[in-house]
Amino acid sequence: MLARKTRIVAALIVLFATFTQPLTPAVAKEVAPPRTPNPKIQMAILLDCSGSMSGLIHQARTQLWKTVNEFAKATRADRPVQLEVALYEYGSAHYPAEEGFLKQLVPLTDDLDRVSEALFALSTSGSQEYCGQVIDAATRHLKWSDNPHDLKCIFIAGNEPFTQGPVDFREACRRAIAGDITVNTIHCGTPAAGISGNWQEGAQLADGSFMNIDHNQQVAAIPAPQDKELARLNAELNKTYVAYGTPQARQVAKDRQEAQDRNVAAASPAAASERFAFKAKAQYANTGWDMVDACREEKLKLEDLKEEELPDEMKKMTLAERKAYLAAKQAQRQKIQAEMKRLSDQRDKFLTAERKKLANQQGDTLDQAILHAARHQATRKEFTFGAN
């Protein structure tokens, strides 16, 4: 009996000791703090697609990549910016009056190929232009950042009076700025018509900029000596992308990337070089479909993918071989992007000199209006712009 009691007491002592021991290093392993997100610049572009706006749409298509290239140079507290762009069309007879003749084409996204794809799919058709309603839709329905230090801005471009439609533009603009979203108005016409049509008032109510552009002006496309080599390097760069997901999703993503290369090249070789320059930057994000980007950004675990979600060339590889394959693709991509950046820097210097010769020969176009306003508003949020 005494021996049995002794064994029970000994067992209780061991059990107590087990629960009172400090955690082993394996259990007590520190969890790495979450990565601090990069500061954001979020832009919603609202384009009038009524019958007279084909020139505006062309400017948007050809100048998108020039615009985002400039914002890719932005930093705050030495951290690079994350760009997100949304796109709406309004004033389109493709949509019924009860829906405001408008549609969200792309939500706020860092996948700018989707934005380019939507721009090239636009067509004009006449209807009423409900500026207040489309501003209100963008304010309410987009996923805006809740960080007060991020830049959130709407750019609305059109030519009809700002007062059309069932939603009062004044209330819409007040709601936007209450959410720390500035509204910048780009009137396609004379300053006097923009003021009388209340475009200036809309910008003033939402702490934005009021601008006027000639939407039918042809943007000077200056050829540069680096354009041909940038196009060749871009073709090599595309080979480093490794799509994942269903077979259909993989094909759609690759087709979209290559289609936007072709679209912008057909529109303007100069615009194509701007796109290729942006593809050499970290802000050209494809984590939603490219395994190299997704693994680098820790948004994808390679071991979690099913075999059918892999491209054919990776299906028979071991996990170690797959990781080595992606590492080689990343190294190849970095080498190509470094050369593209070097050529793009040379191209920028060449174009700066050429544009000085054209100074004061042209008025503002859509890209210049967006850059002027957003850079001004970004500096108020303590963003700085430099070489990138």
What does this entry look like structurally?
The protein is an alpha/beta fold. It has two domains: 40-218 and 362-385, von Willebrand factor, type A domain (Rossmann fold); 227-357, no CATH class. 49% of the residues lie in helices and 13% in strands. The protein has 14 helices and nine strands. It has helices spanning 2-20, 54-71, 112-121, 131-141, 169-178, 191-196, 199-205, 227-238, 247-267, 269-279, 291-296, 312-315, 319-357, 366-380, and strands spanning 40-48, 74-76, 79-80, 82-90, 102-109, 151-158, 182-188, 210-213, 384-385. A hairpin with a 2-residue loop joins strand 2 and strand 3 (79-80). Helix 10 (269-279) packs across helix 13 (319-357). The longest helix has 39 residues, at 319-357. It is globular and about 65 Å long. 40% of the residues are buried. Mean pLDDT is 88; it is low at 8-29.
